[in-house]
Amino acid sequence: MKQATFSQSSLEKTANLGNSKAKITLISVFNVLLCVLFFALPISEAVKQISLYALIVLGFYIIWRQKLPFKLDMVGIFLIAYAGFFALSALINAQMKYMLDPIRSVALFLVIYGLGAKNIRLNFVLYCLFGGYLIAFIMASYKVFFAGAQLFELKSIGYVNTSAIYSLFILSIFLCAFWWRLVSRWLCIAAILLSFSGVVLSASRTCIYLLPLLFLLFGFFALNSSKNESKFSWEHLFIMLGVIIALALVAFLLTLLPHERIAYKISLGSGFLSTRLYIFGSAFYTWLEHPFFGIGGAEFLNVDNSIWYPNSPEPHVPHAHNTILHLLSTTGIFTALCYIIFCLFALVKFFKARKSAIGLCALLILVLGNITGLVELQFHSENLLLTMFIFALACSYFKGQKA
């Protein structure tokens, strides 16, 4: 009887060990796909798409197989509602391809949130994120300075202002990674200098104007964070001051480059609202004509601003240059409301988690993203993937998990 009991116990331990190994293997594959995704994000559309869909399928399978607890809060609920109304609008307006961007981004959020930060090898992800950005930065710089391109655009991110916002987010991430020592501080310094240069080279005035705000917010919250969380040291602080001085020097040198777009944007100063106001008004009037489900994302380019504003210098533009107005005019009131409520709940949640690296990073991205969203389209598909990843990790903070 004792022998039978012993044998049964041994079999159970063997089975548990096998399940543990299977779990480790699946999690390892998931982390590899995650690294591939963020390495390819700014440089390869095909690799990005393949790794993303494989990542989502594998992530949901792991959650189901391991029966991981999955309880959504208001942030997750309104994020799902946002994706649902977005997809419904695309369906009603017969623009099926526009359904995928928000759905896949929200699916990534749910997978990362379900697995939890403890299963994510964040240090490897950050190395790959830096590697991908470095390659994209070199390619974009080569086109600007040696191939005659006038726009600094990261290959797979595309549109110049979207590339600037992506660079701003990379800067935010590696500032937090430096302060909390998530990876090598010298790699973080290289990433900070590189992404800062990317923002300036893009000549996106909105993102350039936000650089001082980014450093002020980061400095205030980082210096007031718990010493146990941030591993504060005076050496750390002096290195950061040196980095800030280096950034000021880099900004000065970049403005001296013989680049027409930079010179042109500097000459314009803060007068960018002169043309934006016409676009804002046209988007608002378009929403009044289609209040519930909008006109669909593909149709905004066909909106004629000159109908309402005959003196508009740009009768046709690809988007509303304002996140809320663009959502209203293209997807309707329900999607826009879900987005606003999601941002409000996320703001409260991330503010509570501001003393952690991921919490502060999510707070910075949320604040800066919505400020840029006043004059640009912030919830862009490529930037949304990176945003949802950081937001999901920050939400895991409240489940008592640390990356």
In short:
The chain is built from 16 helices and no strands. The chain is mainly α and 403 residues long. Helix 1 packs parallel to helix 5 and helix 3 packs antiparallel against helix 4.
Entry keywords:
single chain; 403 residues; mainly alpha; 16 helices; globular; disordered N terminus
Structure description:
The protein has 403 residues and is an all-alpha fold. It has helices spanning 2-40, 45-66, 74-92, 100-115, 122-145, 160-179, 185-202, 205-223, 227-230, 234-255, 260-268, 273-289, 323-331, 333-352, 357-372, 381-396. It is globular, with a radius of gyration of 23 Å. Residues 1-18 have low confidence and may be disordered.
- Give the helix tally: 16
Radius of gyration: 23 Å
State the end-to-end CA separation: 46 Å
- The overall average pLDDT, rounded, is 82
Largest sheet: none
Topology:
Blueprint: H1 2-40, H2 45-66, H3 74-92, H4 100-115, H5 122-145, H6 160-179, H7 185-202, H8 205-223, H9 227-230, H10 234-255, H11 260-268, H12 273-289, H13 323-331, H14 333-352, H15 357-372, H16 381-396
Helix pairs in contact: 1-2, 1-5, 2-4, 3-4, 3-14, 4-16, 5-7, 6-7, 6-8, 6-15, 6-16, 7-10, 8-15, 12-13, 13-14, 14-15, 15-16
